[in-house]
Amino acid sequence: MTADSPAPGGAITRDEVAHLARLARLAVTEEELDVFAGQLDVIIGAVARVGEVAADDIPPTSHAVPLENVFRPDEHRPGLSQEQALAGAPAAEDGRFMVPRILGEEQ
Amino acid sequence: MSELIRLTAAELAEKIHSREVSAVEAAQAHLDRIAAVDGRVHAFLHIGSEAALASAERVDAALARGAAPASPLAGVPLALKDVFTTSDMPTTCGSKILEGWQPPYDATVTERLRAAGVTVLGKTNMDEFAMGSSTEHSAYGVTRNPWDTTRVPGGSGGGSAAALAAYEAPLAIGTDTGGSIRQPAAFTGTVGVKPTYGGVSRYGLVACASSLDQAGPCARTVLDAALLHEVIAGHDPRDSTSIDRPVPDVVAAARSGARGDLSGLRVGVVRELGGEGYQPGVRAAYEASLRLLEKLGAEMVEVSCPHFEYGLAAYYLILPSEVSSNLARFDAMRYGLRAAEGRSAEEVMANTREQGFGAEAKRRIMLGTYALSSGYYDAYYGQAQKVRTLISRDFAKAFEQADVLVSPTTPTVPFPIGDKVDDPLAMYLNDLATIPTNLAGVTGMSVPSGLADGLPVGLQVMAPALGEAVMYRVGAAFEAARDADEGGPLIARVPEVSA
Description:
The structure holds 2 protein chains of 2 kinds.
Chain A lengths: L13 H10 L6 H18 L34 H5 L5 E2 L2 E2 L10
Antiparallel strand pairs in A: 1-2
Helix pairs in contact in A: 1-2
Chain B lengths: L8 H9 L5 H19 L2 E4 L1 H16 L12 E5 L26 H8 L3 E6 L33 H8 L5 E6 L5 H7 L2 E4 L19 E6 L2 H11 L17 H8 L8 E5 L9 H16 L3 E5 L7 H16 L18 H12 L2 H13 L6 H24 L2 E5 L15 H5 L6 H6 L2 E10 L2 E9 L4 H19 L13
Parallel strand pairs in B: 2-3, 2-4, 7-8, 7-9
Antiparallel strand pairs in B: 1-3, 4-6, 5-6, 5-10, 9-11, 10-11
Helix pairs in contact in B: 2-3, 5-6, 7-8, 8-16, 10-12, 10-13
């Protein structure tokens, strides 16, 4: 998955799936690695067709309608209360989101 | 069974507004129906009986005071796809990761429905985070097609479509990212509309793929869809992609279309969506539809959209890319599920996502992560965005030759539950005909066009961006002519669901 990765269309390996899962913050089981490797390979093989048509002189479209900045008057408006914002949190303490350790123990 | 549930939304509204029937009676009739059949259909994930009856009571009280109805649909019950935030009901998007989550605010669509006095009955089942073509990818179990409960109702809005076909609600709301309103409409013999991108606010709609998602109306008739369209459409300053232009007068268009004259109108028959590889019954119904449009006086023109055949490939690169980014918000920190195990935030996040997401969501997250990764980005995502340009150009050219375009909505009739669930690519092929409109942001609808092997199929009508009026006109004319030919609406032939 580096800049000099092989050309598209190569088979997706189990290791690649494991790497993608790490990038996507997704724990996957051993069994899922096999299933996804096979399925992703088939899907990528099918969607690689996009390379057949689009020439260099075609501009990409990222959005169906041209986007421009939308501004509104810079005025105070009510937002969610602290209580509302925390209402769905898996854990909260002292009016804040409580999260697991972010830094490793060695840090 | 109460006859109230058989009425169209327009008919029911008339009875409520003339106070022949109360909004509470209408709500109760549908709640009773849900209680009787939803155990079998499973269209709903949550029923909000109390809130629904309270809302209906407010409509009745206002009418009793002599006030004008808040909207032409005041007092009419509706089923809301569980992807819209609701401050009085859970919003789960068919996912375990949001099990029981109650949002602190209403989506703009929810707000507009409430302001219009529409009775929100509950939240409907869907493929997880709107990813799927069958409603088999819901964490809360499959929805069944009322026409044949061994078959899928389509997806991702299968719950909304099934609720209509099972007479659990006369109106529903869906979202369409690649066909999730139109394909279930075709599979259930109902009407589904994907408005122009930006035509209905996405504020408070949990995102699947932001550049493609579009909320829209689901109904049993074109006129009902138009009435609902007008309630939910229009500019919303809270959505920066919302179009700040007047909403086309779709209700007038539907009414004029129902008079059944399409002379002077050019209907483009898309050669590339003409039925090659489609099921024979689907093809036959489509050919009959074309003859019917011609009989209505439309001028039939063959148009070619050569890049549509790459639409599916482009879509299944762009969609997962946006999904992988949008679903990154489910990080187990601020809302939703949090896995108990994990020594660090990163591990807790990875474990939570493993437990919380189903197979299709994971597959698409990984596909998107792949398509966006360094070294592959240009070859996949970049190329897909170029195909998007080519498809928009195909549409532009076709709309120079024709006012609307038509195709079958889906290549097949509803398939048996379990048939394609382990074959993602086969499942994806079902969206072949609906995807181009999402990529280009134009509008499309599915209207019931007949039965194939005893199961419903749909005709897709597509129009340019903000061209909803002409699309509704054609849809209504087609519906009226078909109903006249067949001696009644297709939906009247749906078998009674046994509990």
